[in-house]
Amino acid sequence: MLAAGVLLIAGVIATKTSSRLGVPSLLLFIGLGMLAGSDGVGGIEFDDVDLARTFGIIALGFILFSGGLDTRFADIRPVLGQGIALASVGVVLTAGVIGGLASWALDLSLEEAVLLGAIVASTDAAAVFSILRSRGLAIDNRLGATLELESGSNDPAAVFLTVAAIEVLTNEQSGLALIAGSFVLQMTLGAACGYGLARAATWLLNRLHLDFDGIYPVLTVGFVLLTLEAVTVVGGSGFLALYVAGVTMANRDYIHKRSLIRFHDGIAWLMQIAMFVLLGLLVFPARLPDVALDGLFVAAVLIFVARPLAVFLTLLPFRVPIRQTAFISWVGLRGATPIILATFPLAAGVSNASWLFDIVFFVVLTSVLVQGTTIGIAARRLRLVDDRAAPARSVSFDAVMTGDEGPRLHEVTIGPQSPAATRQILDLDLPMGVLVVLVRRGAVSFMPQGSTVLEVGDELLIAVEPQHAATIDEQFSA
Questions:
Q1: Where are the domains of the chain?
Q2: What's the predicted TM-score (pTM) here?
Q3: pLDDT one-digit tens code per residue, 403-437
């Protein structure tokens, strides 16, 4: 527990350091794990592959759900086609190019080379979400939406290809038609179940009327775990289901929406830090020099050949400008997903599995170090940044107002028997320490005037000085 507390706090501090140094935070998280591991100063012995894989799968689920919660459908609708194409066709093309060249250059069987390609084929949602938002680059909205949609939805394709390649290597042969049909089924079920479960979750949130606000986050944590495993059990992609569920819930109204989004943002950061530190503990740095040459070759093929070729061919029908295509290919960061997928061959007993894991880890480090630290430079060189348009930053009340003294915010719903129903606000004769800040009526929110007539069903946000707390009950409650 002491080690976990120290590593988590160090990970949080690392996020501040990373933004100042221009180094992706996930690189520092992995470095913390390597320093704390058996080959580092911490000397923590950790080699439980199954535990790392299981925790990594759960962590990725929370990260994808949080990424979806922060995505407006209006932003991704114009790029839905190209985002889905990159998340499916792009992943297959990347895996194929890496597999072909790795088989030729590294003395691997075609099946082993394709497995390697499948493992490193997807971009990492946690890496892309954190780097794009922490850099604060004022890039085109369509471009940013494409990158986030791709990174949030391409993990399922990489997971499917990895599992299929392992099945082939372990003599559980399947025909190409059967593999393709299974892929379509998993993606379709995942998307449909994610949407349906999210609709059910929002319905439940709005109708449970729990007595304690603190239980609502518990409910959504249960929803994430339920969706991840239930969809997998019925044959769909749990990862895709969670991302679709997050996007669906982001674009629907439900009680405590803002606080739940912030809660899951914090959970996603916790999972991200813990996951990268755990994966750093799992690797043995002393073995990395042995795979350095092979790792550099695979990383070079990925960064400069496979990813650009896959992006160019995939986006060709969509007529995306060449500068944006080049930027999308450069922001193909690899992160925790490939490392987690590299534990699958270890658990399945595939030959050369340890070598594959070390290669993948080396490729991820290289990708984050080379691409992650140069995203801003690439965007400016390609003239995709408007330095005059600094991206807006939203700040919540408790981010700028601290302390227990002073006004508090109250949420009130006007019921049929409320004294305030059908009356103007100025007629309520509210004291100076009470201010109706916001009124939500149906799907519309607005700042009221003194002449605003309150209606039954209105939801009010009221700032109240502590000494006037009783006024809330007197003036607004039934």
A1: 2-381, 406-476
A2: 0.79
A3: 556 677 888 888 888 888 999 999 888 888 889 99
Side-chain-side CA neighbours of residue 130 (13 Å):
34
Using the predicted structure, report yes or no on whether residue 250 has a pLDDT greater than 70: yes
Q: How many other CB atoms sit within 10 Å of the CB of residue 31?
A: 18
Burial 399-431 (b: 16+ CB within 10 A, else e): eeeeeeeebeeeebebeeebebbebebeebebe
| Best CATH choice for the domain 2-381 from the list 1.10.10.10, 1.20.1530.20, 3.30.540.10, 3.40.50.12160 | 1.20.1530.20
For the domain bounded by 406-476, which CATH number is listed?
3.30.70.1450
Q: Which two tokens stand for residue 238?
A: 């749990």
Whole-number average pLDDT of the chain: 85
Tell whether the model's pLDDT for residue 90 goes beyond 90: yes
**Region of 406 on the Ramachandran plot (φ > 0 left; ψ -120 to 50 alpha; else beta):** left
The sign of the dihedral angle between the CA atoms of 95, 98, 101, 102 is negative
Average pLDDT over residues 177-183: 81
DSSP string, 132-185: HHHHT----HHHHHHHHHHHHHSHHHHHHHHHHHHHHHTT----HHHHHHHHHH
